[in-house]
User: Fold this.
Amino acid sequence: MALSKPMGKFLTETGELSRFAGRFFAQWYKPRYELGEFLRQCFIIGYRSLPLVGLTAFIMGLVLTMQLRPSMVEYGVESQLPAIVGIAIVREIGPVITALIFAGKIGSSIGAELGSMKVTEQIDAMEVSGTNPFKYLVVSRVLASVFMLPVLIMLSDAISLYGAWIGVNIHSTTSFALFWTQVFNILSFSDVLPAFVKSFFFGFAVGIIGCFKGYNSSKGTEGVGQSANSAVVVSSIMIFVIDLLAVQVTELLGLN
Amino acid sequence: MLKQQHIEQIEGSKPVNEQEPVLQVSHLYKAFGDNKVLNDFNLSVNRGERIVVLGKSGSGKSVLIKCIIGLLRPDSGGIRMLDKDIAGLSHQELDAIRAKVGFLFQSNALYDSMTVRENLEFPLRRHWIQLTHAAVRKMLEEALEDVGLAHTIDMMPAELSGGMRKRIALARTLILKPEIILYDEPTTGLDPITAREIIELMNNIHAKYNTTSLIISHDMNCVRLAASRIVVLINGTCYANGTWDTLTKTEDPMVKQFFE
Assistant:
């Protein structure tokens, strides 16, 4: 039975992405270690993303609190607002929104950078200069994404909760200490651990898809734009797919 | 050991034999799907020669040069460079050969995110990490002086003109003092005056370091000024082979079309 053309293309690309990821797993632990490039990428991917992630996290916490408040007041549980907001941010909204922002900023930048390097033969130039371009460019960026996104998510959660505290204080007065006590009283290990673990997978998805799209870029400058665009689209979809799988696994393990 | 041998080569301690073939391509085949790009291509290059491979756009010239440097794997046939069979080399051995072979890319392939200094240091750091800072600085200065752009050392590639970028790319190729330099369309996209300057620079480098040059081009000025021997690539094969004077007198219409 002949597959339709889009389905065939989708399956081919999925296969190629899997092979690309397999190549990453086969190479990441072998010398020569590109430590300098890894640290440079950690700086670019992690530190330079912090202002954007921090700003969106602050607004997210503030708006979420303001949107939830009327319903909580209606049900007479306004005092539980810090606890509900805390659970929502730490378990779901913080990791997913931060990962989506990360995909938009880092996925597109990796896709465009590697795509541009590919079409201007810079990747070939690395290879003839005694460098394994896959290790230098791909492994360093994917590892930096894997390690930096969880850090960004933790910081984003904290900034979101700060935004939420300000949101609570718009209509009532709650001390900073009381707000945090209420949040931490309701949070348990099973709330934090799955969110922390899935953030590594989010980071891997954004890094590997951005690198895959850029590394296989073609058709000149038009291809670079397409690589950047599809890196964001595909990694954003993958974030939701991983989130869906994570919630199923969490339920199976009894952590919900 | 390989690194030590190459350092000795740089210092000029190894005697050279002018008639020694440094590159031999035999019965090379390469196809992309049904498109046979190289079809039983043969070529032998002696030390110190300046060979231009002449062919129309899309005739497989760049595929040939990328097969030689190991960026593309031929379907069949042999490539022997500096007494090594390229196909049978491990990654480390191939890197050791590549340290002795410079490659000037058509698009220059300068790293956008690095300064000129970092671009030139890149192959040095990747091949010989044990070089001292003083040695690296000396090699950088020498390579930049060879191309007449010592003042650009801290500039970014985006700040340079097309001709300057080509010169810096050539300096990066030169920094390892290669025995063979492969030029992929060195004058494409340059104005006639800059193209002539680049050709003169290539000839000066050849005279100064006695490098062997394999130049891929369809620019007849480049062919005329840079070649000691011309190979005409038609239908994936080495169709004709000779000097500028002999090929310009040929009556073969397939060859004649290039020289009219």
About this structure: The interface with chain A takes residues 66, 69-71, 91, 95, 98-99, 101, 103, 105-113, 122-123, 126-127 of chain B (CB under 8 Å). Chain B is about 40% helix and 25% strand. The domain at 2-9+21-248 of chain B is CATH 3.40.50.300 (Rossmann fold).
